[in-house]
């Protein structure tokens, strides 16, 4: 396969015009692109199993309890619960101004926000557009479910949709005690926090909310249970890492049956350093789970949960900040120490360095990716962008042309090919470059 990743080219989206907020200002005039058009972003956003860690300002005062969102036009409302209500409001309203919000499946509340033209991110109580955001009752975390049930019974909110469990669990099957969210790097094409680095609204504060969309309807009754995020990456050996621990709070079905997607809203945190899990105990645990598949996996009582709890506790971030770029840089280095032959990781390294404005390091990493996988179209593409930032136009032209040729032969999505063609067209003709030199 001619891609950076082992399976497909679903890399995180980048803004090719200015790299994004995390990178230094480039010294060379960047190539122009269509505003808001991310060549790989649509593939990423359409993935059903989408992890999106939302960032919030550290100055927000967080409230644990029950909240209500009221549509003042039709009188309909939603009653929810959260350990951090203000973050949950921001989670509900994040990215409503993006085209992707209209293209992806939403739960009923977000659909109403879109229908009634709410496009701002909400972080505090009050009126926002035609919607009123209230804190209904403050309570302890252990009382959230009971208190929410009481308010739902009282208010009968129209936007609260109760997921239908179509098949009852057999009496002999134990109820799940916790859940694993398995993030398959090769299938998804990015790591859990990578999308943050290419988001034009990113801040340096570390948020503690997780939004996951899954198709496992068995999770509809999982509110209040722990969820551990585990990443699988690489081959020979396959490497597994614990990335975070969360508590499932709200579980919201999409509006498009029969193949429902469930939107999980959870509270917790990423680990400051992902923890390597490849031990005999983990292998036995994975086998007991029926091995891992992409998405949510129900787990019964097992001693290995204590291991996961200990790792999460011992490696939780200090304070409310986490350096995402540094976390990824260290993680890539760790994966490559175990297996230096992972071409896809070198490509991801190159993309990270390019976004940071470290063009020489980006080229070095992408050289390694191309050496190990000569048909990696996106490695040539990003190396071409890095060369352009350094003003090395002949090399940029050559790499972009190679990327274009590979994309055409690999039958990749047409919008990728079109964008690379546009970038090449904006470069001076190769004959003029040699003449000027």
TrEMBL record:
The keyword Repeat applies. The chain crosses the membrane at residues 43-67. Residues 1-32 are annotated as: Disordered. The keyword Repeat applies. Residues 62-161 form the GIY-YIG domain. Coiled coil: none annotated. TPR repeats lie at residues 343-376, 377-410. Keywords: Membrane, Repeat, TPR repeat, Transmembrane, Transmembrane helix. This is GIY-YIG domain-containing protein.
